[in-house]
Structure to design on (594 residues):
């Protein structure tokens, strides 16, 4: 019998919605281990986050300290390792966000634990499924040892639902050593759009868009549908759009209700990031483009003609109510 | 500046994966250097150069773990410009990220580099763990998913930008440190050693290819074979792959003839708009 520690990322309002699937996976694993879920929040001023986390976990450990304000792997990983030891947990889980990917393996090193990245299913107490080879193979992996670590693919588990309030324990944070690392600043991408990982609609552009300014028309389509904007690696590589829009094996994995791929050929590495979408639309002037092999609806046309027409068509549909 | 750069061979990611009986058949795979490791090599070389084709200062040591055939990829890295290479014998299918990081930590203790540069992930295992575990084992600072790196003129710290979900994070780390690179690292001004290169230095927006001269020079460079046992580390994998299966196949749907038909189908059939 062992508990599962779930690392919950947070801001000053509460835990991030990206952490909710990790809580779901944590509950599934806790069931296998015969224990419960213990959520962990780390930062400075984590009161609201801890209260929020308590809606989803029977126990919450909060590491609230001014020295932990910056999300540094050097200072946060030791807190996660501390939580696992404090609880006597058998597993540490978190979502495979950029923070999770940075901090969790370091925590695994401190715990001497094996780790599985990007798990998509909990099979047994120490068995998981996860994609490898750009999603072209699904591995079933087994982790040995008294403690295991896993990062959770956000789109593979539903968000946890709130329940009875759990108990919050504030941990007195021991020595904090950033090992000479410091956060200089964060240049946030300002966007009023939903996060790529959570959006119900994603509109992505590829190399065929040719230039960054041509993404404006995709933004118009995106906003009309209340979605998030994405891009292929080729478009990011060419510097048309920032890399944080990248959808694919080495970017973000999305699974929206509707994915519209515009001028994207459909390289294996891109498909790895979007083929879990419910409905896929492909617009490409090349009828042989591989993207059509995964698209529910394929339109062979240039984006210059198709996208303005699509915008007009959706506006007309909305107007007719 | 001494830089250790990790090199893993991967099956060509553009080729179709052969899956049968719960296993992947790599017997006919065509192998190449992991693309992110290629960026790592390029980064390490730029950090030891005054500019494109300019003088060099410092040492770049490439390390691989794998069967003896990996010498081929290492030879390619030496042809790009790395000074020497170390090939640690091992079966990479039997290793996990933890085991690889333990082996690298032992090598770091021997080589004492100022910086370890890795690709952010390999495109076969897709784990994205080794750099972070290595930094944790060494007790060194880490900077992952780098879009840029500037080494301070005194060689004591590096200021980096990292691609994170919320945007771009700027971080400073004391050396020695472990860094992992993302694709933006091969940008024109992404890499600079302030002790060597001026602020105006610009690089090609791609990793370099081996020149004929480089290939000739590489033949004379050392690839040192090191037995895994010699490093005295426990390289037992904590994570073992029990089986592989093909992902569910997504069926191609229908072609639509016009935007009007597309809008109608999305509304009436798929009910997503």
């Amino acid at each position: 019998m062992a508990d599962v520690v779930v690392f919950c990322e947070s801001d000053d309002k509460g835990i991030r919605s990206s952490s909710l699937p990790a809580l779901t996976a944590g509950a599934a694993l806790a069931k296998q281990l015969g224990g419960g879920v213990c959520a962990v929040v780390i930062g400075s001023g984590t009161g609201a986050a801890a209260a929020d986390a308590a809606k989803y976990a029977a126990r919450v450990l909060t590491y609230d300290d001014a020295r932990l304000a910056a999300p540094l792997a050097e200072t946060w990983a030791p807190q996660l390792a501390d939580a696992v030891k404090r609880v006597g947990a058998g597993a540490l889980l978190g979502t495979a966000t950029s923070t999770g990917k940075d901090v969790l393996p370091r925590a695994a090193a401190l715990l001497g634990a094996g780790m599985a990245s990007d798990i998509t299913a909990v099979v047994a107490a120490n068995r998981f499924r996860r994609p490898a080879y750009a999603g072209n193979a699904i591995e079933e992996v087994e982790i040995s040892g008294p403690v295991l670590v896993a990062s959770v693919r956000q789109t593979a588990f539903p968000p946890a639902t709130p329940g009875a309030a759990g108990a919050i324990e504030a941990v007195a944070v021991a020595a904090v050593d950033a090992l000479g690392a410091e956060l200089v600043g964060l240049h946030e991408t300002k966007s009023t759009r939903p996060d790529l990982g959570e959006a119900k609609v994603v509109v992505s552009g590829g190399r065929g868009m040719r230039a960054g300014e041509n993404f404006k028309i995709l933004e118009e389509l995106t906003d009309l549908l209340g979605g998030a904007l994405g891009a292929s690696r080729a478009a990011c590589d060419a510097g048309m759009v920032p890399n944080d829009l990248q959808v694919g094996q080495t970017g973000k994995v999305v699974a929206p209700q509707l994915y519209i791929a515009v001028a994207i050929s459909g390289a294996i590495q891109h498909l790895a990031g979007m083929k879990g979408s419910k409905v896929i639309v492909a617009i490409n002037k090349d009828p042989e483009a591989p993207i059509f092999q995964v698209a529910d609806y394929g339109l062979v046309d240039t984006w210059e003609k198709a996208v303005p027409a699509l915008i007009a068509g959706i506006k007309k549909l909305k107007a007719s109510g | 500046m001494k830089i250790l750069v990790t090199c893993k061979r991967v099956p060509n990611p553009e080729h179709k994966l052969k899956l049968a009986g719960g296993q992947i058949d790599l017997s006919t795979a065509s192998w190449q250097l992991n693309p992110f490791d290629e960026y790592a090599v390029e980064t390490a070389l730029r950090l030891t150069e005054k500019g494109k084709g300019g003088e060099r200062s410092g040492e770049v040591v490439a390390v691989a773990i794998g069967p003896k055939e990996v010498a081929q990829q290492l030879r390619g890295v030496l042809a790009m410009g790395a000074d020497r290479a170390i090939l640690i014998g091992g079966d990479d299918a039997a290793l996990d990220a933890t085991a690889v990081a333990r082996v690298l930590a032992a090598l770091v203790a021997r080589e004492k580099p100022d910086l370890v540069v890795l690709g952010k992930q390999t495109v076969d295992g897709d784990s994205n763990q080794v750099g972070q575990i290595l930094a944790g084992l060494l007790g060194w600072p880490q900077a992952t998913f780098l879009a840029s790196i500037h080494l301070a003129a005194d060689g004591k710290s590096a200021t980096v930008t990292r691609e994170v979900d919320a945007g771009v994070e700027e971080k400073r780390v004391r050396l020695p440190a472990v860094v992992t690179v993302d694709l933006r690292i091969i940008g024109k001004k992404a890499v600079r050693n302030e002790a060597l290169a001026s602020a105006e230095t610009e690089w090609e927006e791609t990793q370099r290819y081996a020149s004929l001269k480089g290939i000739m020079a590489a033949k004379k460079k050392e690839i040192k074979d090191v037995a895994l046992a010699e490093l005295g580390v426990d390289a037992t994998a904590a994570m073992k792959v029990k089986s592989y299966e093909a992902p569910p196949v997504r069926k191609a749907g229908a072609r639509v003839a016009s935007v009007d038909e597309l809008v109608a189908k999305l509304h009436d059939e798929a009910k997503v708009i």
Q: What stands out?
A: The longest helix of chain B spans residues 97-111. The mean pLDDT of chain B is 95.
